[in-house]
Amino acid sequence: MINYKRIQFASAPRTGSTYFMKAAAIAGLGEGFKAHVHKPFPEEPNAAVLRISMVRHPVDWLISYYTAIFPGSTGIEEVDALLTLPGQDFDEFAYHYLERMPGHVNEVFDRYRSNTNLRIEDAPWNVIEMFESITKLTEDQTQRIVGLGKQNISKTLPFVGRKNRLLLGLAEKKTMEKYDYCV
Length: 183
What we know:
Blueprint lengths: L1 E2 L3 E3 L7 H10 L7 H4 L12 E6 L2 H11 L8 H4 L9 H11 L3 H7 L5 E4 L5 H8 L6 H9 L14 H10 L1 H6 L5
Parallel strand pairs: 2-3, 3-4
Antiparallel strand pairs: 1-2
């Protein structure tokens, strides 16, 4: 969790946290440190502070998690629960995910207990709008945030066929509906 001026930010790995931290620095909210960004918010909310997280399409999150993190540990219980799944390749990982943990991405995202969730797919405009609600951005700041582009991109994502994407999307129906994603 990162404390900025008037907001707190924490987000699951692979959801755009690097982008958010860089955008927050450009907006003048302060610097964030990667070592703290994935630590979930404390159990007790502070009503005076806006808690923000980023989310990502759950199927894309699983693919990115598998490519960039698996089989490494994050120290976040809900994320590390995925380490119980075998997976020599993504298809095997997806098969066991569907058998043992369907819908688990929702638990990962819910662990952060934020008041506001921003979809990474809607950046930069949703991030700019949120910053504008708490501080005045200059035209230069806005353009620099727009120019950030994608951050921390996985270089080699596995091919995931339509059938697996559909099955994973259906298994994540609650997450898909909650964050307005399409299968």
